[in-house]
Amino acid sequence: MSNKDAKVYVCTQAGCKNKYNRPYRLEQHLLSHLNIKPFPCTWENCSKAYSNKSHLNRHIASAHEKEKNNIIYRCPECFKSYSNRQNLKKHIRQKHVVSLPFVCDHCKAQCRKKHQLGAHMYMHNGVKAFSCEICSKEFITLYEKKRHMRCHKTYTCDECSSIFNQWSRYQKHRKSEHCAKKYICEDCGRAYTQRIHIIQHLKSHSNSENPRRTFSCPYPDCFRRYSRNSNLTQHILVKHKKLKHICNICQADYSSQAKLKEHLKIHENGVVPRRKVKSLANGRKHRKDKDTLKMSTALKLAGLTEADIEKCKLLNNTKYE
């Protein structure tokens, strides 16, 4: 029996010990104490009324539409007949259902499997029945334990015996280290496994006289320009369309999903996580445009080349001479 099936909603009326596993069922039950019956029978010369719509439907089917429906609810075991399906199900459950093998000693709840009983017992004794054999972390249900065990699964490279704890990192390692690099730059000899990567690399060798295309903001009175279309899209969403990513806990808003994720770590751990500073010694890669002619981002966004800047310098020098 799972936790969602536990009857935790108790009737507060004096002398009533009824329990329910859904709040709306408790609300329907309380109507019977208050003698409120909002579902009257609409058939002629019938003054019956009920607190539950399903009870009204059962009354109409058994009392008014019995001959019309021409349905007989008969037990397949003892052939007893009943006026409606609910009464037949109740009879079968009480008289013919075989008891399940695992029974709770406290509330007599029945379970089909032993691990279900172990999860159910947490309601009574607060003991988590399942634990990880590797890190000793405890869990209420067997499903939670199985999901946790994925964290300990490792993937070993067949080529170099490197071990990874994530499938994505293992695949990335195979592509970068063991797949043949068939795209080679003729200018610097750098090799790549994918065509899109060498296309991006070749842009670093482009002549400074032909700067990259820039993307301008289409909104009036906004003169922002970006070297990437994705950056322009993010700018429009945040600055002009006022898109915000809101924290469900403290209602703080952030301009990007990444910033919101960093903020949520504060609620989880209670401290602000420090970002690890990368260097060449601990895994940072070398610059792809190393030893190549570079052009400042400011010039790219302004649409100017270095030759234009030199002309401006010459004009200024001749002006003041």
Summarize the topology.
Layout: E1 9-10, E2 19-20, H1 23-33, E3 39-40, E4 49-50, H2 53-64, H3 66-69, E5 73-74, E6 81-82, H4 85-95, E7 102-103, E8 110-111, H5 114-120, H6 122-125, E9 130-131, E10 138-139, H7 142-149, E11 155-156, E12 163-164, H8 167-177, E13 183-184, E14 191-192, H9 195-202, E15 215-216, E16 225-226, H10 229-240, E17 245-246, E18 253-254, H11 257-269, H12 297-302, H13 306-320
Characteristics:
single chain, 321 residues, alpha+beta, Double Stranded RNA Binding Domain, two-stranded antiparallel sheet, two-stranded antiparallel ribbon, 38% helix, Zinc finger protein 316
Written description of the protein model:
- This protein has a two-stranded antiparallel ribbon. A two-stranded antiparallel ribbon has the order 3-4. Strands 5-6 form a two-stranded antiparallel ribbon.
- The protein is α+β, with helices and mostly antiparallel strands and 321 residues long.
- It folds into five domains: 3-95, 2-Layer Sandwich (Double Stranded RNA Binding Domain), CATH 3.30.160.60; 102-152, Double Stranded RNA Binding Domain; 155-205, 2-Layer Sandwich (Double Stranded RNA Binding Domain); 206-240 and 290-321, no CATH class; 244-276, no CATH class.
- Helix content is 38%, strand content 11%.
- The relative contact order is 0.04.
Q: Care to give the gist of this entry?
A:
With 321 residues, the chain is of the alpha+beta class. It is built from 13 helices and 18 strands.
